[in-house]
Design a protein that fits this description.
Helix content: 40-55%
Mean pLDDT: 88
CATH class of one domain: Alpha Beta
CATH topology of one domain: Leucine-rich repeat, LRR (right-handed beta-alpha superhelix)
Largest sheet: 13 strands, parallel
Strand content: 5-15%
Number of strands: 17
Low-confidence stretches: 1-14, 107-121, 510-521
Structural class: alpha/beta
Shape: globular
């Protein structure tokens, strides 16, 4: 026996973060479009961009940020690109903020630019969120908030992106008391960042007391890591609100006890139309408390409870509570641990959502049974559905029959996301058949679905001729190199419609055996014939 010990040479693994992949760049553009077209305190002051204008601006912003970051990277070729990534993100944010503050470009008529924003007789929004994220002391607060001291017509204030300490809070307190009777919208998101807990709690108490009994329609307390102590620090403000239409409590570290405090402190939600509760630590017990708030909100139109660690029991409670919300238009429950039982419970209340236009159900562990129940319920309701997202739910071809029939019933569907499932070619064929006649369709994502050239071809042919279609994402599948070439040929007249294929694995599955292809095609044809469209 050879007793010698082999010698291994240590090698350093070098990872380059720059340049980003094409799919990453497209994802950034999509996120910017979503932000630019979402109502915000900026849109209330400067106007809201339409989809076409936002897409144009987002592409220009991303291109400019990419060039700036690339120029920086060229100066440090031996680096890992991390600083270039930071510049890319910062430049994108800066340029997007400029676009938000610019507002709609306006329209040209007879050679003259016609403003879409109209002439504001008075200034109604006071916003200090622009510029760098920073602490604010008493002296700076006195200067920055001076417009609040004299007579004014402000009905909306935004203190986001500035961290208030005790001295600054004491400066702003009398100002808030003097204008609270005219305020309708208050944004205090991210206004205590980096402060010690005791100081942050006291600052929140000061703001809460100063704004007590202000009759608000909009309140944003997101990004403050409040927990139960923080929620209760806003007791005076929350307890005095009876007319809220929009409430945002995102990324606030809201646990089970904090969620119970929210349900306890808000006396009335009968007028509430928007409730966003994203990225908290709620869990099942906290979900029970939020469900009580939802039950008392019959006017709710937009409910977001994504990434809140809610399991099956909490999911069932939320689903049952949503049965009272007959005006719901947008439902976002992504990234929770609902499972099949909660999915089935949700399917039972889906029929009451006659006005539903967007539903996000990705990463809920629905599996085939949960997905089938929801698809069957949606098929018979929500006639105006525009967005359907069921990504990452372990859906196979078995449930795809129901999903496809649901899709075929939605004549206004514009976005479909079934990525990160297990549809394979059989499921891809069913979906491609369902997409026929969907003239409004603009985006389809079936990436990471074990699809080979056989299924990819059917999907490509189903969308390539659609007017207004923008993106087919079938990346991270098992398409052969020859199949990739044929896909590019199908989209030769509109290459931008085909998403990146840089994560495709041509070796993922053997697709070159003619007998196997024939068998797959026969099975696909059989399934397609039985599909109800």
């Amino acid at each position: 026996m050879d007793s010698s010990v082999p010698s291994y040479q240590h090698r350093t693994l070098s990872i380059k973060l720059w340049p980003p992949s094409q799919s990453t760049r497209l994802m950034l553009v999509e996120r910017m479009v979503r932000n630019l077209t979402t109502p915000s305190i900026f849109s209330r002051k400067y106007g809201l961009l339409n989809k076409d204008e936002a897409e144009k601006d987002a592409k220009e912003i991303e291109d400019a940020a990419f060039v700036t970051a690339s120029q920086h990277f060229e100066k440090e070729p031996d680096g890992d690109g991390s600083s270039a990534v930071q510049i890319y993100a910062k430049e994108s944010s800066k340029l997007m903020l400029e676009v938000l503050k610019r507002g709609p470009r306006g329209k040209e008529e007879n050679g003259e630019l016609i403003s879409e924003k109209g002439d504001a007789a008075v200034e109604t929004v006071f916003d200090i969120s622009g510029g760098r994220r920073a602490f604010i002391d008493g002296q700076e607060a006195s200067e920055l908030l001076k417009p609040l001291m004299g007579p004014n017509s402000f009905t909306k204030i935004c203190f986001s992106n500035r961290s208030f300490g005790l001295d600054a809070a004491h400066v702003v307190e009398p100002m808030l008391i003097s204008i609270k009777d005219q305020l309708k919208e208050v944004d205090l998101s991210d206004f205590i960042a980096g402060r010690p807990e005791a100081e942050a709690i006291e600052v929140m108490n000061i703001f809460s007391s100063a704004l007590e009994r202000a009759v608000l329609r909009y309140l944003n307390l997101s990004n403050n890591a409040m927990g139960e102590k923080g929620v209760r620090a806003f007791r005076a403000l929350l307890k005095s609100q009876n007319d809220l239409e929009e409430l945002y409590l995102m990324n606030d570290g809201i646990s089970e006890e904090a969620a119970k405090a929210v349900a306890e402190l808000i006396p009335s939600t009968e007028k509430l139309k928007v409730l966003h509760f994203h990225n908290n630590m709620t869990g099942d017990e906290g979900a029970f408390a939020i469900a009580e708030v939802v039950k008392r909100s019959p006017a709710l139109e937009d409910f977001r409870c994504s990434s809140t660690r809610v399991g099956s029991e909490g999911g069932v409670a939320l689903a049952e509570a949503l049965g009272a919300c007959t005006h719901l238009k947008k439902l976002d429950l992504r990234d929770n641990m609902f499972g099949v039982e909660a999915g089935v419970a949700l399917s039972k209340v889906i029929p009451v959502f006659a006005d539903l236009t967007e539903i996000y159900l990705s990463y809920l562990n629905l599996e085939d049974d949960g997905a089938e129940a929801l698809a069957n319920a949606l098929k018979e309701s929500a006639p105006s559905l525009e967005t359907l997202d069921m990504a990452g739910n372990d859906i196979t071809a078995k449930a795809t029959v129901s999903v496809a029939e649901c899709i075929s019933s939605k004549q206004f569907l514009t976005k479909l996301n079934l990525s990160e499932n297990e549809l394979k070619d059989e499921g891809a064929g069913l979906i491609s058949k369902a997409l026929e006649g969907r003239g409004q369709l603009s985006e389809v994502d079936l990436s990471t679905n074990l699809i080979t050239w056989s299924g990819a071809k059917l999907l490509a042919e189903a969308v390539v001729q659609k007017p207004g279609f923008k993106l087919l994402n079938i990346n991270a599948n098992f398409i052969s190199d020859e199949g990739i070439d044929e896909l590019k040929d199908i989209f030769k007249n509109s290459p931008d419609m085909l998403g990146p294929l840089d994560e495709n694995d041509p070796e993922g599955e053997d697709v070159d055996e003619e007998a196997e292809d024939d068998s797959d095609n026969d099975e696909l044809e059989s399934k397609l014939k039985g599909l109800e469209i």
